[in-house]
Amino acid sequence: MDLYGFFRSSTSYRLRIAMALKGLDYRLHPVSLPKMEHRTADYLSVNPQGLVPALVVDGQAFTQSLAIIEYLDETHPEPPLLPADPAARARVRAFAQIVGCDIHPLNNVRVLKYLQTRWNLSEQDRNEWYGHWIAAGFADLEAHLGQHGGGGRFAFGDTPGLAEICLVPQVANAQRFSCDLSAYPGCLRVFEACMALDAFERTHPRHQPDAT
Ligand SMILES: N[C@@H](CCC(=O)N[C@@H](CS)C(=O)NCC(=O)O)C(=O)O
């Protein structure tokens, strides 16, 4: 398999964790976002959306991290990334989608850039925007954990899966922007439990070959 990603991209980190949990190897093709390599003709031929990550399996390109992760879960079912019970699956997916649909798109590189270039936001204003959506999103994650979490070692039980795959990169990203996450102790507890595992630690941006 060929993984196209960027070390600092949280959606690429999601995919790295999922593949590590499943013990899947891949050839890495670094795509630098600062160098705009995601907009080159070469990369657009892999993912016409011009976003990372993308995964190529036997010549077929897959895009959108959550879709790729569910594809991998279906083609390599062990260990499962979602619980067997449909209601429990819906809770895990809802948690993952708070990150994937409600937090990440508002703070993506192209959105932050647009705010700065089109609307002349200063770096301080941009960081305030970022921090605002982190605070709103993490309050929602914390509430969801409180209502449905169940008190296991991880977010929804004693094994990590899709929820942690989405949470950990978002925490790592918020830390890079120096956001104070102390108001979300449930999320931090799950984050710490994950970072004690090799699959989350060795896939962290700081250990990637393209890290600068
Ligand atoms: N919903 C997509 C989002 C992908 C995405 O936006 N990736 C970011 C990096 S985390 C990116 O490529 N950003 C480039 C840009 O904003 O120009 C997914 O989950 O794969």
SSE layout and pairings?
Layout: E1 2-5, H1 10-21, E2 27-30, H2 41-44, E3 54-57, E4 60-63, H3 65-75, H4 86-103, H5 109-118, H6 123-148, H7 162-176, H8 185-195, H9 198-201
Parallel strand pairs: 1-2
Antiparallel strand pairs: 1-3, 3-4
Helix pairs in contact: 1-3, 1-7, 4-6, 4-7, 7-8
Tell me what the structure shows.
With 212 residues, the protein is of the alpha+beta class. It has two domains: 78 residues, 3-Layer(aba) Sandwich (Glutaredoxin), CATH 3.40.30.10; 114 residues, Up-down Bundle (Glutathione S-transferase Yfyf (Class Pi), Chain A, domain 2). 52% of the residues lie in helices and 8% in strands. It contains nine helices and four strands; from the N terminus they run βαβαββααααααα. The protein has a four-stranded mixed beta sheet, covered by helices on one side. β1, α1 and β2 form a beta-alpha-beta unit. α4 runs antiparallel to α6 and α7 crosses α8. The model has no long low-confidence stretch (mean pLDDT 97). Bound molecules: glutathione. Glutathione binds next to α1, α3 and α5.
Residue stretches low in confidence (pLDDT < 50, at least 5 long) are none
Kindly name the structural category: alpha+beta
**Terminal CA distance:** 24 Å
Number of strands: 4
> What is the name of the CATH architecture of the largest domain?
Up-down Bundle
CATH topology of the largest domain: Glutathione S-transferase Yfyf (Class Pi), Chain A, domain 2
Which hetero ligands occur in this complex?
A: glutathione
The residue fraction in helices comes out at 40-55%
Mean pLDDT over all positions: 97
Element-level helix/strand string: EHEHEEHHHHHHH
Oligomer: single chain
- Main sheet: strand order: 2-1-3-4
Specify Rg, calculated over alpha carbons.
Answer: 17 Å
- Portion of residues in beta strands equals 5-15%
Please report the first level of CATH classification, the CATH class of the largest domain: Mainly Alpha
Largest sheet at a glance? 4 strands, mixed
